[in-house]
Amino acid sequence: xxxxxxxxxxxxxxxxxxxxxxxxxxxxxxxxxxxxxxxxxxxxxxxxxxxxxxxxxxxxxxxxxxxxxxxxxxxxxxxxxxxxxxxxx
Length: 89
Fold this sequence. Notes:
Layout: E1 2-10, H1 15-25, E2 29-38, E3 41-49, H2 57-70, E4 73-79, H3 80-86
Antiparallel strand pairs: 1-3, 1-4, 2-3
């Protein structure tokens, strides 16, 4: 099972490192990542394998959202199945 993680906000040192650390703490494997800095905005999309996650999906999502709130970042975690369903024609 996979999840799509998006991060958007003002660029600062350590965003990728902290999001990756939260994933690692919960045994979530980052499969693919793309990031860009658009002027002073940090934009990142991650595909993560959540099949070995040690906490419920909602708790994992909440931990990333909480980090985002604390650092003025918009972080969303969506199960890949829901993401795919939303984008089907």
